[in-house]
């Protein structure tokens, strides 16, 4: 009993068309897989570059000063309306960023792993100010993408079994740390701009006419 019949197996010539059609199909499939993989790698690299750019902007001096002002006002018990004036840079930053995520231009998991806690903390801190802004403008769309992204990350935390609860007690505990870290960041930016002035070395006076030159005494060589 033959399991494989090779009597009519033809590689070259008439009757071999099926074999070369199959080979061509395999080559095309491998090519498509390689192209898809290359495009995926390029897309991932672009997403990583975007995350790095966003992280740099989030940690630059302008944002550090805005964050310090906001957390200081909240720590001092300022009203949501007063905090809103100082929080516009932060809220607008995360709103634009969340829109990119929501529209599919950035991977949610990648962003979650990079800045997830920051999004959740600052949304909870600015939630009262967002509500005040919506009531004042009669527009429920203010920072709506920011709110949506915080909700997405909260769901990620729940599925991952994270125990951190971003309630008022937790936020109150974080405020001193946030103030201190932003003060340090601002001080570093200021230090980078500082100009260091070093005193110039004293000028050596060349011996002139009537001024005897001092011969430098050579050290004695031991054993000479």
Task: Write down how many β-strands occur, each being a DSSP E stretch of 2 or more residues.
Answer: 0
Rg from alpha-carbon coordinates: 34 Å
Uncertain runs are none
Compute the average pLDDT: 81
Number of H- or I-type helical stretches? 6
What portion of residues is helical?
A: 55-70%
Distance between the termini: 105 Å
Order of helices and strands: HHHHHH
| Strand portion | under 5%
Biggest pleated-sheet summary: none
- Please state the overall shape, judged from the principal axes of the Cα atoms: flat
- What structural class is derived from the secondary structure elements? mainly alpha
List the helices and strands and how they pair.
Blueprint: H1 17-58, H2 61-75, H3 80-102, H4 108-137, H5 144-160, H6 168-193
């Amino acid at each position: 009993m033959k399991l494989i019949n090779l009597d009519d197996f033809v590689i070259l010539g008439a009757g071999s068309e099926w074999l070369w059609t199959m080979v061509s199909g395999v080559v095309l499939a491998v090519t498509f897989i390689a192209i898809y993989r290359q495009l995926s790698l390029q897309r991932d690299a672009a997403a990583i570059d975007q995350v790095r750019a966003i992280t740099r902007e989030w940690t630059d001096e302008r944002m550090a000063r805005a964050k310090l002002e906001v957390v200081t006002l909240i720590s001092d018990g300022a009203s949501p309306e007063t905090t809103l004036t100082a929080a516009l840079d932060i809220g607008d930053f995360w709103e634009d960023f969340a829109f990119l995520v929501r529209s599919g231009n950035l991977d949610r998991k990648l962003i979650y792993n990079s800045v997830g806690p920051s999004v959740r903390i600052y949304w909870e801190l600015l939630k009262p100010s967002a509500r005040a802004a919506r009531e004042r403008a009669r527009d429920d769309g203010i920072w709506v993408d920011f709110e949506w992204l915080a909700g997405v990350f909260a769901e990620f935390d729940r599925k991952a079994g994270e125990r951190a609860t971003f309630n008022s007690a937790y936020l109150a505990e974080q405020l001193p740390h946030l103030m201190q870290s932003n003060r340090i960041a601002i001080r570093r930016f200021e230090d980078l701009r500082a100009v260091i002035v070093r005193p110039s070395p004293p000028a050596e006076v060349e011996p002139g006419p009537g001024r005897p030159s001092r011969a430098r005494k050579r050290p004695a060589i031991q054993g000479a």
